[in-house]
Amino acid sequence: MSQQELTKANSSGNTSSESIPEISQLERDLYYFGVSSGGRGPKLVYRTSTDVFQGPTGPHNRTRTTQLLPVSGHSKLSNSDLWNTILKETVKILDKHEIKFTSIDPVRFAWDDYNEDGSETRVTSRFTIWIGVLPESTTTEAAFHASQGILELLKQHEIDDLDVAFRESVVRQL
């Protein structure tokens, strides 16, 4: 990801610089490749994770296939009713940023990274708050700012081992 510098005035009138990642079209289209039954996966809007996306590689242009994993207990969110509290506050943050969300899910992902020698390394993501948004409704900048609010909320509960990610999704009735 390359970085775009934004300068904004804080409440005291001082300016500060925030780095908002720019996500390539290839990463938007292929980051979740394999998650959906059709293979393609939902379109990425923004993510706080630090893993480096590798586009198609090798002589056969292999694209990493991402799997959605079941979520086992989180050391803090599994205790008492904290997940419900985080969920309610996350909805307030999304509403504040006028983000039209379709779902908020606790998830983990796994994929194989291809090494230079042709071998593969299995990668499992951290616990992720995966937010679905209506297609073409949310900018990377809006998702970035909402993510910062969600990460701050988590920090207030002494949780610092989660990521936040936004994807385009549409809810369909069965």
Q: Averaged pLDDT, please?
A: 84
Roughly what fraction of the amino acids lie in strands? 25-35%
Count the DSSP helices: 3
**SSE topology string:** EEHEEHEEEHE
Oligomer: single chain
Distance between the termini: 37 Å
> Helix proportion of residues, in percent?
10-25%
Q: How is the main sheet built?
A: 6 strands, mixed
The structure class reads: alpha+beta
Radius of gyration, in angstroms, nearest whole number: 17 Å
| Tally of individual domains | 1
Tell me about this structure.
The protein is 22% helix and 32% strand. The chain is globular and about 45 Å long. The strands form two sheets. Strands 3, 4, 5, 6, 7 and 8 form a six-stranded mixed β-sheet that branches. It has a two-stranded antiparallel ribbon with strand order 1-2. The protein has helices at 25-30, 82-96, 140-156, and strands at 2-9, 15-22, 44-47, 67-69, 101-114, 120-124, 127-133, 162-168. The N and C termini lie far apart (37 Å). It has one domain (2-168). With 174 residues, the protein is an alpha+beta fold. Residues 1-21 are annotated as: Disordered. Residues 1-19 have a biased composition (Polar residues).
Write the layout of secondary structure elements.
Elements: E1 2-9, E2 15-22, H1 25-30, E3 44-47, E4 67-69, H2 82-96, E5 101-114, E6 120-124, E7 127-133, H3 140-156, E8 162-168
Parallel strand pairs: 7-8
Antiparallel strand pairs: 1-2, 3-8, 4-5, 5-6, 5-7
Helix pairs in contact: 2-3
